[in-house]
Amino acid sequence: MSRIKTVMSSLKDNGKSALIPYITGGDPEPGLTVELMHALVDAGADIIELGVPFSDPMADGPVIQLACERALKHNVSLIDIFSMVTAFRSQNSSTPVVLMGYLNPIEKMGYSTFTKCAAEAGVDGVLVVDLPPEEGHGFLLEMKTNKLDSVYLIAPTTTEDRIKAICDASSGYVYYVSVKGVTGSASIDVASVAKMLTVIREKSDIPVGVGFGIKDAESAKAVSNVADGVIVGSVIVNTIAENVGDHAAIISKVSSLVSSMRKAMDA
Amino acid sequence: MPTKYTEDMLKNIPDLSGHFGEYGGRFVSETLMPSLLQLEEHYNKLKNDPKFQAEFYKDLADYVGRPSPLYLAERLTEKVGGAKIYLKREDLNHTGAHKVNNTIGQGLLAKYLGKPRIIAETGAGQHGVATATIAARLGLECTIFMGAEDVQRQSANVYRMKLLGAKVVSVESGTRTLKDAMNEAMRDWVTNVDNTFYIIGTVAGPHPYPMLVRDFQTVIGKEARQQCLEKENRLPDALVACVGGGSNAIGLFYPFIADESVKMYGVEAAGHGMETGEHAAPLCAGTPGVLHGNRTYLMSDENGQISPTHSVSAGLDYPGVGPEHSWLKDEGRAEYVAITDDEALDAFRTLTRVEGIIPALESSHAIAYAMKLAKEMDKDQIIIVNLSGRGDKDMHTIAAIDGITV
């Protein structure tokens, strides 16, 4: 069983939802990422989404765009990201790491090399924002060969026939994008999320993580009541942005934000 | 002469899922997929709908002023001393460039789909102006995204768009040029997908855009082919067009693909010179990759990050290119070359002085290459250059280079 499946099923047995924070690898500088990942786990993260910085993050709002820019100032590459995961794994063998990014850096490296290196580094899953299942057959095969989970997106606009196809292509979990828009834009509407989750669950029993628009402990709690996973990105990245230059403040403020969400979700 | 590019073969370019050989496709986040599928479905119906087509061609005639002339540039031909140079006068279109052919088409699509709001990205501002124009005419709300650097160097077009009632958003992210404007337009579209139609200005982006923009622009090549047959009683020997995203080039090339005796040259921007790396020539110096929804030749670094580009002409300042050009390149059916800023500026001045036609800086790249090419050809041979736009918008850039404030 993959690390993601193990975590998801044990949470489910305990009636809990997964807390899945996102940070951009190398933001604000490469040296801090591994420490930040451990801090996220200590604060209650069940899975970590690690962003691979890209020069043209089309699906992201200004907060994550700027995080990419900060990381790219240090020329953070996929190879650097793999090193970060390897370093994280040397002290943590249980928390799944899902890479989230755009296709071009992966194409440049080659699907086969990318998936092999990812698996060797201890990556568990990969979400490629601009790779819908229709275009991803070759990539999916390489992912399966290397026993990596493929996480695909479902959006509020996704039609019912596509939901089924996306769930079938996914493993580990699917990522429900709760609002039409870019990351960090609108606030979540839990009622409409719950409605969509019902539709998704009619098609598949794969766990559903919900992201976009979760801004605080309260919204994390509300989403955890209906979803298998709560994905939190921009609010964490924004906390990092507000404390650039002060590593101790980044660690402590991100930790307290994540643990407040954990507490609210478990209450 | 039998051709490998039969009607049956070209029907599959792109194939049903939008691939031009290994290029093109639909690489977008899930939120946009349903809209793209819906757009494709509607377009496939409308492209064979006589009513839609009649409305499109009526607008091209009465509103744009088509057909645009095929003009024999006699003094330029004489000066160069080689092949006859014909100019396809897209600069005479309403709004001053070929861009309007496409915005008329997509504006009609927006109307048929019932979308009250349109958005567009723009580089030189020609597509933005053409979009704002159509929005005014159809009574649609319009927002144009333009890189902050381009807003500065194409200020006349910014003002034009505002006069036409459009909101112009200056994009400060990334390299602050066309690619960033396109990122921002995509972000807007994903947010407002229910009420918004995205009018992409070139033959790039996710399927079905490269196909439908091409279809709307092929009016250029269809007319040019017929006009050349009427004037010269034969087909041209070569076609020359500048390539940023590549819409004016595809528009001219496409109706000639099966005529294998006709050579096709796409002219990219060599900027400060190919050897400096400061250029915008992905077909000449790039590698295949994925950006803005399609797989195509791209300028990116060894880590897959998109490289900054440079060209004196904002409309060519783009790190990618339409996927059909990538296919034509690999096929060997079209040849892609590059012209530097300085060569383009020389051609700009030459055409202005010799023919009394002030070309856009983008089109000046095509003129510059055509002059080189004509010199190597016989006097009884024929070149058609797509004069894709007029240079009014570039007065500030040229004056600044000359050290003059206008």
Give descriptors for this structure.
heterodimer, A: 267 residues, alpha/beta, TIM Barrel, nine-stranded parallel sheet, 12 helices, 9 strands, 13% strand, globular, B: 406 residues, six-stranded mixed sheet, four-stranded antiparallel sheet
Word description of this protein:
The complex is a heterodimer of chains A (267) and B (406). By secondary structure, chain A is of the alpha/beta class. Chain A contains twelve helices and nine strands. Chain A has one domain (3-148, 215-266): TIM Barrel (Alpha-Beta Barrel), CATH 3.20.20. Chain A is 49% helix and 13% strand. In chain A, helix 6 (111-121) runs parallel beside helix 7 (137-145). The radius of gyration of chain A is 17 Å and the shape is globular. Chain B has a six-stranded mixed sheet with strand order 3-4-14-9-10-13, with helices on both faces. A four-stranded antiparallel sheet of chain B has the order 1-2-12-11. In chain B, strands 7-6-5-8 form a four-stranded parallel sheet, with helices on both faces. The chains are: A alpha/beta (267), B alpha/beta (406). The interface between A and B is large, with 44 and 39 residues.
